[in-house]
Amino acid sequence: MYPEWISIENHVFWGAILIIVNLIGITGASAIFISIFQQSRIKGYLNLLVLFCSVVLVLINVFSYSKTLGIIICVVDVIMGFIVFNYLRNRSVKLNTN
After folding, report:
1. Of the candidates 60, 69, 92, which has an alpha carbon nearest to the alpha carbon of residue 21?
2. In this predicted structure, what is the pLDDT of residue 75?
3. pLDDT score of 56
4. How many CB atoms within 10 Å of residue 13?
5. Exposure check for the chain: N or C terminus, fewer CB within 10 A?
6. How far apart are alpha carbons 20 and 73 in whole angstroms?
7. pLDDT tens across 65-89, in order?
8. What distance, in Å, lies between the first and last C-alpha atoms of the chain?
9. What are the UniProt keywords, alphabetically (predicted)?
10. Are 76 and 23 in contact (CB under 8 A)?
11. Is 66 helix (H, G, I), strand (E, B) or coil?
12. For position 8, what pLDDT does the model report?
């Protein structure tokens, strides 16, 4: 029914899909967090708590599937966290200087 290259046995294909979907999801969640955090810090911190819990659950599931994929997704999440942190820090510095 499916082409041979889309088989359950093709771990590289499913791993790439998993990484891409995680990257899209964490980017969307980061954008939502930035928007909420800029409006209200308390709501932003609550959103961050929910986001952190969901990331932990995803990492638990991914590490049970593959340790390599878990490490890659963990690195992607940490990089996105640094990007969001730097964006918010630079934004607050620009707002304070004006």
Report:
1. 69
2. 93
3. 92
4. 13
5. N
6. 10
7. 888 889 999 999 999 989 998 988 8
8. 62
9. Membrane, Transmembrane, Transmembrane helix
10. yes
11. coil
12. 59
**What confidence tens digit (pLDDT) does each residue in 3-62 have?**
666 555 677 778 888 889 999 999 999 999 989 988 988 998 999 999 999 999 988 988
CA distance 59 to 82: 18
Q: How many CB atoms lie within 10 A of CB 59?
A: 17
Q: What is the pLDDT of residue 3?
A: 61
Q: 45 to each of 31, 35, 73, 85, how far by Cα in Å?
A: 14, 12, 23, 13
What are the structure tokens assigned to 5, written together?
């290259």
Q: Can you tell me the distance from the alpha carbon of 47 to that of 36, in angstroms, rounded to the nearest whole number?
A: 8
Using DSSP's 3-state secondary structure scheme, residue 53 falls into: helix
Beta strands in 1-98, from DSSP E residues, in sequence order: none
Q: Give the tokens for residue 48.
A: 């961050």
- Give the separation between CA 58 and CA 35, rounded to whole angstroms: 23
